[in-house]
Amino acid sequence: MKIAFMTGITGQDGSYLAELLLDKGYDVWGTIRRASSINTSRIDHIVKNPQLFLRYGDLSDSSCLFGILNEIKVKYNLNNDSLEHRFEIYNLGAMSHVKVSFDVPEYTADVDAVGTLRLLNAIHNCNLGKIVRFYQASTSELYGKVVEVPQNEDTPFYPRSPYGVAKLYSHWIVKNYRESYNMFACSGILFNHESPRRGPTFVTRKITIALGNILKGNQDRLILGNLDAKRDWGHSKDFVYGMWLMLQQDEPADFVLSTNEYHSVREFVEKAFALKGFNIQWKSNTMKLEHQTDEIGFDKDTGRELIFVSKDYFRLAEVDELLGDSSRAKKVLGWNSLISFDELVKEMVDADCL
User: What is the count of structural domains for the chain?
Assistant: First the structure.
């Protein structure tokens, strides 16, 4: 019997991972947070699958985590001697917006750092530590102010946001539980990964949604922050497969997942807009208003000004470039990033510019 439990199932990665696991025959359990509006849109197409079980829960609530794990334990008659069962836990839940983490730093620490500890303790206290295989969603934001390029599993960390710092605690507490309790617990240090299911406040979706609105006449401009920030952008589908592979190994270990190439926000804008016939060029903003910077993106063919840059969208502590080295994952896991940057941009543009 293959069983999986995940936090963050309604997010981008959670939805793709749930699809993957259901296709592989798992019973999949996931937590959803109660909200005044329905927040399950990414998994609506699988929500009636008889092997999918959803429960209300939150990483800020130890009792609910313990209760859900205990329900799974009773349903499948699990204990540390249940070696005939495969029980995997994926901790994908988080307050994941870097800029917003500066506005809600205490909440970010509670969910992203202490939340991981609560989940590990629930596993331990439910007497499941010997049969669970645990995956923690670490992040390239751990590297922050990078000390070397590219970054691999041995690169020192230097997080530059409350989000990054909270994730660093999670990364190390997972390692601590692995070494202290002999748990199969590992972290995936995932570089940026996107898709049409990416949240609308993240820069890639912000770009493609704005492009769609501009084409429809519902928006006249796109306002961005640091155009020259460089990120290693892959596709979420590729990355959730890497998560699963990590839990299929004989021994737990931490792995970087990345495409091993990076592109600037400026390049993402240019490629996305080019797919819809815009030839974006850049010029000085001589009439800049308060909070604007001195650059405008315009369509060369029509002269229409479309892209503006605002200081309001810059981070308090900027992360200029993140470039991964996933050599270890390729060698040990047999994993590779299959969807190219250009294919990713096109898929997102096609989805948001119907």
Answer: 1
